[in-house]
Amino acid sequence: MRRLIAAAVAAGVMGAVAGCGVFASPAATVVIGVDLPLTGTSSDTGQVYAQALELRVEQINEQQLAGQDVHVELRVLDNHGEHTTATDNLQQLTTDPDVVAVITAGCVSCLVHASQQHLAVPTISLDTDDVLTATPQTRWLFRLAPDPGDNADRISQTMADHGIQTVALVHTTDPYGIAGDRELHDATTRDHIDIVTRQRIPPDADQDAVEAAAEAIATWQPEPEFPGQFPDPQLPGQQAPGQEVPGQVAEDGGPDAVVIWTGPDQAVAFATALRDTGYTRHLYLDLTAVDQLISPHSDVFTPATAVATATINPDIATTPAAAQRADWFATYLS
C-alpha cells in the first residue's frame, strides 16, 4: 500500500508542475529535473517515485497533456541518500537553464540549504518531513507528502474507535519521527488515550537498539491502584514492578496497543522483536512505516492497522483529472 500511495504522490507531481505554468513553454521539449535516492538509503521508495514519474510522463506525452508538439522529459539524478550528493544534484538541476522544475526526495536538509540559495524554479519535495516549516519564505518550494498531523489524527481516532486506552509509541529520531511524537501526543490527549511509554530509535538503529525498545514496551505495566496489588517479590517465581525478567512479558503486561512511527525496515525489525517477546496485541502503523507488509512479514503484523490519509481530493471526483488519475492507477498496478 505504501508503494502505491508513494507512487500516487509522485504521479500527482505532474499536475502540480502543470499548475505552476511550466508546460506553457513554447519549447519542443520540457525538462523536469529529478533528484531521488535510487540506490543506498531509502532506495526502495526512490525507485517507486522514479517509476511513477516515468509512467506519468509517458502518459502526458501520449495524450499531449503538456500541449500539442510539446515533449516532457525527465532528467534523473541519483543522490544515493547522501547529503553531499543530493546537495550537488540540487545545485546542478536548479541552475540548469533547460530545467523548468525540480522534483526531489531523500534529503530534506539539502533542500532547505538549496532554498536558502534562492530557488529560481518550482521545486517539489516528496519527503514526509515538513520542509515548508523550515523554509517559510521560499516562493518556489512545494511539498506533496502526507502531513504528520493528519496521520496522527487518523491513527488516534482509529484507536479511540477500537477502544484503546493505553498505547506505546516507537518512533525514529529523525525530524519526521519527532514530529510524529509531538502530533500524536496532541491527538491522543484530545481522544483521551494515554501514551504510557515512548521508545526512540535512530533511523539506522541496530538490532540491539530495536530489541531493547521492544522489550521495554512489552514489559510495561501500569502503576498499582492499591498497595499490595503486585505479588510478593520474595515468593518464588514472582517479581516486583521494575524487576521484570528481560525478554519475558508478565501476565497482562504491555499497553493495549503500539504505534509504530518509523521507516519500513525499522518497522519490520521492531514488530518482529516485539512479537518475539510474546506481545500479541494490536499494532498501528503510520503510512511511512508501511511497505510490503502482507508478505513475507504478515505474521508479525497480525493484528495490525495501517492508517493513511486520503490522497484524492473529493472536489475533483467527477473531473477529467479524476479519470486521468484512475487510468494512471490501473496502469501502474498492471
In short:
This protein is α/β, with parallel strands linked by helices and 334 residues long. 40% of the residues lie in helices and 16% in strands.
Topology:
Elements: H1 2-19, E1 29-36, H2 43-63, E2 71-78, H3 83-94, E3 99-104, H4 108-115, E4 123-125, H5 131-134, E5 141-143, H6 148-161, E6 166-172, H7 175-190, E7 194-201, H8 207-218, E8 257-261, H9 264-276, E9 282-285, E10 304-306, H10 320-333
Helix pairs in contact: 1-2, 1-10, 3-4, 6-7, 8-9
Description:
This protein has 10 helices and 10 strands. It has 334 residues and is α/β, with parallel strands linked by helices. Helix 1 (2-19) runs antiparallel to helix 10, helix 6 (148-161) packs across helix 7 (175-190) and helix 8 (207-218) crosses helix 9. The longest helix has 21 residues, at 43-63. It is elongated.
